[in-house]
Specification:
The complex is a heterodimer of chains A (343) and B (319). Chain A is of the alpha/beta class. Chain A is built from 14 helices and twelve strands.
């Protein structure tokens, strides 16, 4: 694709006002019960893990929404729900205005979304050459009329992610972690997607390599008008790439805000606790008070607001009644204390 | 007077295709009560340095040169049994994954008590009481009720606390902690860091803290050593290394950390990747990636030399 054509395409993508992805009251439960016989003998019921329990957000085209939270908060489950790798238990997901399940059945629509995974060692087939790995989506969607054009496209993609076209003949084990993640990105881009779901794309990488990959992703977004759903546990990384940020705790969104707002005026007590917990590179010597306790089990979440056992602002209402998302400035927050002005 | 002295340490891995030098001429020391942070990317040799000190190098790795002294006494050439006694009593180890450190078949109380009765002149009753005390100290709620629980009955953060109690209970004078908080969530990590720091301060324990997380180092360590391709490229007080690093690699490493307090258009990045052990370039190992490399860097290897308030192995600071 020529640079001018790329620019026109990126412009057209950003001008479209239908959100790329809309998630409405989506929940995903997993049945983690023991086998029937054991359950009968122990006289216990089913155990349901509520990985995602009713969350809503929308991602406008050409922007990045990030989800942050600690392990077990359900952020990776949301990533999989967003591309239809899991069906929803409740609620619905709209991809560019149409039902996600229907979009996935249509290969022209399916090719518009791709995913990048955390572990570049596990997500590339070790027995395939890099050129075949990258060409797989091109073949699956029938995007190249001939082998020659396919090879040209693979070479272009390798160059785009900062590798050499000659690298296509090699196997994944010949590359470092950062280079492998570049291969994953090239593969994800090969079907000309508009929407990329990135699940912890830099967590397995060293910090200097992480900077390379984040810079590459930002460059590609600016050039191709891509829309990102970005999953990470690292708030500093998220700040560099996001337009909007959602903070998750135990399967729910507790705060959703524009990136700058979230960092300048974090409202939910959990968001504040997370920021407080990050080691301070500035070495201001300020004394931090880490939040106590640990994330409870999503199989038996606490009553009311799930954060109340660790929350310094919790009162009786928080223990009894689950808060819902309400507008607070240009953010949305699910917290009674913020609602009542106690925060 | 330093507690730990490492001098010209060299670790080799003999392979079919020749000998790989994993650590080359590594020297540093740690004083009692001091926390030395060791940072670097995967494969730089940080964990290897820790393993060499506690005498647990994975074969066929072996110490091929240099010496390690604990309190003036050489410990790198001791027979296995003698080193094993030093390892529990004088040097405690904390590893990244708490599940591999704890024995899943024994209760945590038994593991703690056994460690103490082996290394300290106390009986089982006294050891059990002390074990409860240690569990309380590392912040395990209801320690008396939980002492007879098995490792799997604890969450990840609690298990790492048990591991810390286990490393500390024989009251060692040196602790080697290899990525002690990497497997933990950030809110738990903050709790564990605060704990390690206060224990080191109170008991005067020296600590070598190996991690790739500069934030953890900045909060915890007194001095930092930055490693690259099996060598220390810069060592100095933590504030100096974090804020005014003198080695171009250390500068690049600090610059590539995404800042939390602002958004930048483009992160500083170090192009390329660290060389494999089998293909370390001549001269300074960093020269192919270094924006400031000149002729001397390509032929002659720099040793640590004074540079500002730190020591850096870089010809830019040659006198």
């Amino acid at each position: 694709m020529s640079a001018a054509a790329e620019a026109r395409l990126a412009e057209a993508r950003r001008a479209d006002l239908t959100p790329m992805l809309e998630v409405e009251e989506v929940a995903r439960y997993f049945d983690v019960s023991r086998p029937l016989l054991q359950r009968l003998m122990a006289r216990e019921g089913r155990r349901i893990l509520r990985a995602v329990d009713g969350i809503s957000f929308a991602i406008p085209k050409g922007t990045t929404l990030s989800l942050v939270g600690e392990s077990g908060c359900g952020k990776s489950t949301v990533a999989r729900l967003a591309v239809g790798l899991y069906p929803t238990t409740r609620g619905r997901v709209l991809f560019d205005g149409q039902d996600l399940a229907r979009a996935r059945a249509d290969s022209a629509q399916r090719s518009r979304m791709q995913m990048i995974f955390q572990d570049p060692y596990a997500s590339l087939n070790p027995r395939w050459r890099v050129a075949d790995i990258i060409a797989e989506p091109i073949r699956a969607f029938g995007l190249a009329p001939s082998r020659v054009q396919e090879a040209a496209r693979v070479a272009e993609l390798l160059t785009q992610v900062g590798l050499s076209p000659l690298d296509g003949a090699k196997f994944p084990h010949e590359f470092s972690g950062g280079q492998r993640q570049r291969i994953s990105i090239a593969r994800a881009l090969s079907s000309n997607p508009e929407f990329l779901v990135c699940d912890e794309p830099t967590s397995a990488l060293d910090v200097s390599v992480q900077a390379q990959i984040l810079n590459l992703m930002k460059k590609l977004q600016a050039r191709l008008g891509l829309t990102f759903l970005f999953i990470s546990h690292n708030l500093a990384v998220v700040r560099q790439v996001s337009d909007r940020i959602g903070v998750m705790y135990l399967g729910k969104l507790v705060e959703l805000a524009p990136a700058e707002t979230l960092f300048t005026t974090p409202r939910h007590p959990y968001t504040r606790a997370l920021m407080e917990a990050i080691p301070d590179l500035g070495m201001t010597g300020r004394v931090r008070t880490p939040v106590g306790g640990e994330v409870p089990s999503p199989i038996s979440p606490p009553s009311g607001c799930a954060f109340h056992p660790r929350c310094p602002l919790a009162n009786d209402r928080c223990r009894a009644e689950a808060p819902v998302m309400r507008a607070a400035g240009d953010a949305q927050v699910a917290c009674h204390a913020v609602d009542e002005g106690r925060g | 007077m330093s507690l730990l002295d490492v001098k010209n340490l060299r670790v080799e891995f003999p392979t079919r295709r020749g000998t790989l030098v994993a650590l080359d001429d590594v020297s540093f020391s740690i004083a009692p009560g001091e926390i030395l942070g060791v940072v670097g990317e995967s494969g730089a040799g940080k964990s290897m340095t820790g393993a060499a000190i506690i005498g647990l190098l994975e074969p066929p790795g072996r110490i091929a040169g240099g010496e390690i002294r604990l309190d003036g006494k050489r410990i790198d050439n001791l027979p296995y049994e003698e080193m094993r006694r030093i390892r529990g009593r004088q040097i405690g180890a904390i590893f990244q994954d708490p599940l591999t450190t704890l024995n899943p078949l024994y209760t945590i109380g038994r593991q703690l008590a056994e460690t103490m009765t082996t290394h300290l002149p106390i009986g089982p009753g006294e050891a059990r009481e002390r074990a409860i005390g240690w569990l309380e100290l590392v912040g395990i709620p209801a320690a008396r009720e939980r002492i007879d629980s098995y490792p799997h009955e604890f969450s990840g953060g609690m298990r790492q606390r048990v591991v810390i109690a286990l490393a500390l209970c024989a009251e060692p004078r040196l602790i080697v902690a290899d990525e002690p908080t990497t497997a933990l969530d950030v809110s738990i990590q903050a709790q564990v860091i605060a704990l390690l720091k206060s224990l080191a301060r109170e008991k005067g324990t020296a600590m070598m803290l190996v991690t790739h997380d500069m934030g953890v180092i900045a909060e915890t360590a007194d001095r930092v050593a930055v490693m690259y391709a099996g060598r220390i490229v810069e060592i100095g007080p933590v504030r100096e290394v974090v804020k005014h690093a003198n080695h171009p690699y250390a500068q690049g490493l600090m610059g590539s950390i995404p800042p939390l307090d602002r958004r930048v258009d483009r992160l500083q990045q170090i192009d390329g990747a660290m060389p494999r052990l089998s293909a370390i370039p001549p001269g300074c190992a960093y020269n192919p990636r270094c924006p400031q490399a000149f002729d001397r860097c390509r032929v002659q290897r720099p040793e640590l030399m004074p540079a500002g308030a730190t020591d850096a192995a870089c010809w830019l600071h040659a006198p």
